[in-house]
């Protein structure tokens, strides 16, 4: 069983997680005999949050219920409310997960919290821009590891920009190994280009 923890907080940027959460929940393109995946929403409390798109989400569990194990995946979304101190425990948990060999995937504003506590100082990463990180994170010292791409992985750390939701999802799905290589390639190409030929290819990969 792979436990995927999807952290939710007020102002969460809905679109940044749409691709990856939809595929993990629906399992519609999972390969045969894929690992079982459990996806739970996590909050600092059990209080409901409101996303940027106005959706109400009630967490399944609180951050202290996350199990630190190498197979775990923690998803940290973008939001403009990360500076609230109630989110400190999830950042500490993210560091604990990275230490034990688990995967932490942060996008947009979530990268700033990791930058501020030094997680990005010695790991390849990206964000909305290098200037953005330097402006909002006084303690950030990872400039030499910054890559100007939409999303990227360095071991267990996956980072993405606000415009990188699709590539971010591809990297997370590849890390989890729930799609076959052919399915993942066709899936990404279809949503990246909109060309119907890739959708037909995607369907054909599911017949194997």
Automatic annotation (TrEMBL):
<dbReference type="InterPro" id="IPR002818">
    <property type="entry name" value="DJ-1/PfpI"/>
</dbReference>
<dbReference type="Pfam" id="PF01965">
    <property type="entry name" value="DJ-1_PfpI"/>
</dbReference>
<feature type="domain" description="DJ-1/PfpI">
    <location>
        <begin position="4"/>
        <end position="173"/>
    </location>
</feature>
<protein>
    <submittedName>
        <fullName>DJ-1/PfpI family protein</fullName>
    </submittedName>
</protein>
<dbReference type="InterPro" id="IPR029062">
    <property type="entry name" value="Class_I_gatase-like"/>
</dbReference>
